[in-house]
Amino acid sequence: MFCSTIIATIGRPSLSRAVCSVLDQSFTDAGFEVIVVNDSGRPLPEAAWQQSERVRVVTTNRRERAVARNTGAAMARGDYLHFLDDDDWLAPDALAHFWKNQPGEDAGWLYGVSQLVDRQGRPLIRLHHELSGNCFLQVMAGEWVPLQSSLVAAEAFFAVGAFNPLLAGPEDIDLLRRVALAYPLAGMDQLAAFIERGDEGSSTDYDRHPGLSRRAREEILEEPGVFSRLRPAMTGPYWSGRLVRLYLTSALWNARRLRALTTVSRLSYAFRGLLLGGSDALSADFWRSLARPYASPTFARGFALAASGNAQQAGPAATTGSMES
């Protein structure tokens, strides 16, 4: 089976739209399925899609998204896992495009174009990521690749430990970082998913989100081979500065918590990055990158298209796209 779409739901009315967006795909080259994980704590209303042979429904009873998604993944038969929220939906022909753009065997994450919309379905901004290969530094710096418009290789998903059940909110960002640590990323130019943004009706605790994301990133920095994975992305002054900033902000975070040994370790890696960057440190781009929080070029391109009057880009953005705290 090519793909398993896993939809963790809290029983919102938009669930039927999400499920049907997968079932209505014209894709016939290989098998696909939908696993609906009911985490609402109550029975789902009857719906026609529940009679489809492609659909399986399982209940986790209010265990939060990470556990619900992991439960669905454990049941999945697909070579790739696709995680869709119950208020988002798959673009027409997305599975066919994913099939045609399958990366090499070593890639762990394949993503497409994402259309962000508001809670009324009006377009906000369209995201065209330009990431491929070793993108670990980019995602550690703060680049966000939406889970809903991505396929994660099942082998990679389980190899990195699935979703962290202790992270309620940034568990998708954490998964991306851990996959990027071990596997290349690959992208396609076709639209993959429509993703609703906005606080209204959201199940994410945005007040706790930055702190949880930071703690998860600190845990990843403790993994073996992190600096070796980051080093190849130092392709110029800007990314040299981002690597040094990554370790300096971590050192500051740990110093405030009186973690002396970790602080010294982070400072040593920052100094090592500075030495390896060599003449990059003489560039103004290096110091601007070092001094400022990450600004996503993906969102910058989207804003530029919106300003030019592109109808698909019109509307205010719901987020800056940076996942750096």
Overview of the molecule:
The chain is α/β, with parallel strands linked by helices. Among the domains are: 1-88, Spore Coat Polysaccharide Biosynthesis Protein SpsA, Chain A; 218-291, no CATH class. It is 39% helix and 17% strand. It is built from 12 helices and 9 strands. The chain has helices at 15-23, 65-75, 94-100, 136-141, 154-159, 171-182, 209-221, 226-230, 237-256, 260-277, 284-291, 297-307; strands at residues 3-9, 32-38, 55-59, 80-83, 89-90, 109-117, 123-127, 150-153, 185-196. Strands 1, 2, 3, 4, 5, 6, 7, 8 and 9 form a 9-stranded mixed β-sheet that branches. Helix 6 runs parallel beside helix 7 (209-221) and helix 9 runs parallel beside helix 11. The two termini are 39 Å apart. The model is unreliable at 311-321 (pLDDT under 50).
Give a quick summary of the entry:
The protein has about 325 residues and is of the alpha/beta class.
Q: Keywords, please?
A:
single chain, 325 residues, alpha/beta, Spore Coat Polysaccharide Biosynthesis Protein SpsA, Chain A, 12 helices, 39% helix, 17% strand, globular
Tell me the layout of helices and strands.
Blueprint: E1 3-9, H1 15-23, E2 32-38, E3 55-59, H2 65-75, E4 80-83, E5 89-90, H3 94-100, E6 109-117, E7 123-127, H4 136-141, E8 150-153, H5 154-159, H6 171-182, E9 185-196, H7 209-221, H8 226-230, H9 237-256, H10 260-277, H11 284-291, H12 297-307
Parallel strand pairs: 1-2, 1-4, 2-3, 6-9
Antiparallel strand pairs: 4-8, 5-9, 6-7, 6-8
Helix pairs in contact: 6-7, 9-10, 9-11
